[in-house]
From TrEMBL:
<dbReference type="GO" id="GO:0006897">
    <property type="term" value="P:endocytosis"/>
</dbReference>
<dbReference type="GO" id="GO:0005769">
    <property type="term" value="C:early endosome"/>
</dbReference>
<dbReference type="GO" id="GO:0005770">
    <property type="term" value="C:late endosome"/>
</dbReference>
<dbReference type="GO" id="GO:0005829">
    <property type="term" value="C:cytosol"/>
</dbReference>
<dbReference type="GO" id="GO:0000011">
    <property type="term" value="P:vacuole inheritance"/>
</dbReference>
<dbReference type="GO" id="GO:0036010">
    <property type="term" value="P:protein localization to endosome"/>
</dbReference>
<dbReference type="GO" id="GO:0061709">
    <property type="term" value="P:reticulophagy"/>
</dbReference>
<dbReference type="GO" id="GO:0006623">
    <property type="term" value="P:protein targeting to vacuole"/>
</dbReference>
<dbReference type="GO" id="GO:0006895">
    <property type="term" value="P:Golgi to endosome transport"/>
</dbReference>
<keyword id="KW-0547">Nucleotide-binding</keyword>
<dbReference type="GO" id="GO:0032511">
    <property type="term" value="P:late endosome to vacuole transport via multivesicular body sorting pathway"/>
</dbReference>
<dbReference type="GO" id="GO:0036258">
    <property type="term" value="P:multivesicular body assembly"/>
</dbReference>
<dbReference type="GO" id="GO:0005525">
    <property type="term" value="F:GTP binding"/>
</dbReference>
<protein>
    <recommendedName>
        <fullName>Vacuolar protein sorting-associated protein 21</fullName>
    </recommendedName>
</protein>
<dbReference type="GO" id="GO:0003924">
    <property type="term" value="F:GTPase activity"/>
</dbReference>
Amino acid sequence: MNSSITSVKLVLLGEAAVGKSSIVLRFVSNDFTENKEPTIGAAFLTQRVNIGDETVKFEIWDTAGQERFASLAPMYYRNAQAALVVYDVTKPQSFIKARHWVKELHEQASKGIIIALVGNKIDVLESGEERKVAREEAEKLAEEENLLYFETSAKTGENVNEVFLAIGEKIPLKK
Ligand code: GDP
């Protein structure tokens, strides 16, 4: 039995209101609220998951999506080993923003950073809202830029744990 803990600094980036804080709340507390107060600056939370015999402790920086905070982002991604770049599958503008974040991370963040592209709010497609970002388009970006790719719902919890597990599995474990 191996009791070592591997810590992973992870940052969330993406346009305001795509659901970054909600994804973190779902992952950390298995909870969801409809009317979340926007994050000011950044919030820090941790959560542990077991991957095989190993414990991975995620140290999560949830950054505010508002433009006025964008200049702070490098502070949070500079030492990050992983990033979630989140967009809303019904908001094309948020996907354009996601492309920019991926580019910036590749240019400015640590070389080996693991990036997951996350299309959130897929639950709304069930209730008749129109998808505005094709899965194929996101898959293409993920392939070109070497990203993990998931579509999630923070509301139902669909695929949220899976994103973090997939990242955990790619992190070199402390032995
Ligand atoms: P952030 O600014 O990116 O952190 O976004 P928030 O987490 O604050 O979410 C913005 C709004 O979208 C809130 O009203 C959330 O309740 C809502 N929201 C977040 N994730 C989902 C989701 O997966 N499905 C639906 N239907 N709403 C969501």
